[in-house]
Specification:
- There is one protein chain.
- By secondary structure, this protein is an alpha+beta fold.
- It has one domain.
- It has helices spanning about 60-70, 90-95, 135-140, 160-165; strands spanning about 5-10, 15-20, 30-35, 45, 55-60, 80-85, 100-105, 115, 120-125, 150-155, 175-180.
- The strands form 2 sheets. A 6-stranded mixed β-sheet has the order 3-9-10-1-2-11. Strands 6-7-5-4-8 form a 5-stranded antiparallel β-sheet.
- The protein is globular and about 40 Å long.
- The termini are close together.
Length: about 180
């Protein structure tokens, strides 16, 4: 089956594989809209030694790391985390030359390598509320506590990404996988 999009939900943790780019499931029971991440960074790929696409990583500066740490404190641990590698740096992070990251992990296998990709096909999903999208975007100028609720993250053009970087989806996931929405 050729999957086009992967959506990771943060609050009722699950992964959903979709075959149509235009499909968007309700995320954690809420309507959502897709937009940019809440910090200035493009993600790179976390690959296991077995060639599995096990997650994404965002290299961050100090200001964006503080923002990411605040965001992660409200999200499900084990899937998304702000990590500071000061003393014990995993091999895959040491090769990057950075020590501040936001990592989103969905594969059971540990990351073994960061594949420099600077992807533009990631989307963060935010809860749609009673305010307009313009009002919500203005909130990013306010403290993080006033920002819209983050529901999940998605990766589009999944099949192309897997093919381009010689990856495969994990055999085992850290969260349930929903393929019910995937069509042949």
């Amino acid at each position: 089956m050729r999957h086009s999009k992967l959506v990771i939900e943060f609050f009722s943790p699950k992964a959903t594989l979709l075959c149509d780019e235009s499909e968007l499931p309700t995320i954690s029971g809420s309507l959502a809209y897709a937009s940019f991440p809440p910090f200035t960074s493009a993600p790179d790929i976390l690959r296991s030694a077995e060639g599995e696409f096990v997650g994404l990583t965002y290299a961050l500066d100090e200001a964006n790391f503080a923002r990411a740490a605040t965001i992660c404190s409200d999200l499900v641990s084990g899937i998304v985390a702000a990590r500071r590698y000061d003393e014990v740096t995993p091999k895959y992070a040491a090769q990057y030359g950075h020590d501040l990251f936001l990592e989103v992990l969905w594969g059971i296998s540990n990351p073994d390598e960061i594949v420099l990709a600077q992807l533009a096909d990631d989307a963060w999903y935010y809860q749609i509320g009673p305010r307009s999208q313009d009002e919500i975007f203005q909130e990013w100028k306010l403290p993080i506590l006033d920002a819209p609720r983050i529901l999940g993250i998605g990766v589009s053009y999944l099949h192309d990404l897997l093919e381009t970087y010689d990856l495969r989806l994990p055999d085992r996931w850290t969260l349930p996988v929903n393929t019910a929405l995937a069509r042949r």
